[in-house]
Structure formats: structure tokens, C-alpha cells
Amino acid sequence: MAPTKPLAVAEIGCAPGAGKAVWVSDALTRARAAGARMVVWFEFNKETDWRLSAEESVRRAARSIVADSGWVTGGDYSLVRAALGI
To answer: Under a CB-based contact definition with an 8 Å cutoff, are residues 84 and 63 in contact?
Structure first.
């Protein structure tokens, strides 16, 4: 639709569970491989704990992917960076 515009995932989240860190890593890696430059994470504890910052293993998984250059930043990204420790 707009080949000159960056690809973004408008909202994504993952429910808690033993495989959350692997799911996060896989989802972000696949989004990046598909050309996504931005992913908006549902960083809320609402109905269930969707947050990347909820568990250390999930923070590490997300940190390893978003530390890659090329991601677009903005909005409350400073809060996400602080939660992920980056």
C-alpha cells in the first residue's frame, strides 16, 4: 500500500506463560525480518499481564532485539527503555 513508508505493527502483546520470552523474541525477530521498524507493545497489566517488563527473561528477550539499530523510537519509549534496562 505504501512501499516508501516504514512498516509498523500497531499493537502487539503476549499473555504470561512459560514460553513468553521465546514468543517475544520470535515475534520481534520476525517483525524486523519482514521490514518492521516499529512495534507498539501493549505494556499494560490489564486482564492479564501483557508487559514486557513483567519478567526478567522477557525483558532480556526484548532487549536483545530492540537494541538493534534501525528501530523507530518515540512516544513513551523512554519508559519502555527504562523498564527494559536499555
So the answer is: yes
Domain membership flag for residue 69:
yes
Contact 65, 28 (CB under 8 A): yes
Q: Is residue 76 part of a domain?
A: yes
pTM as predicted: 0.76
Nearest to 49 by CA among 83, 84, 16, 11: 16
In a domain, 1, yes or no: no
Q: What is the DSSP letter of 48?
A: E
Q: Is 83 exposed, middle or buried (0-12, 13-18, 19+ CB in 10 A)?
A: middle
User: How do residues 21-63 score in pLDDT, each as one tens digit?
Assistant: 999 999 999 998 888 888 888 999 999 999 988 899 999 998 8
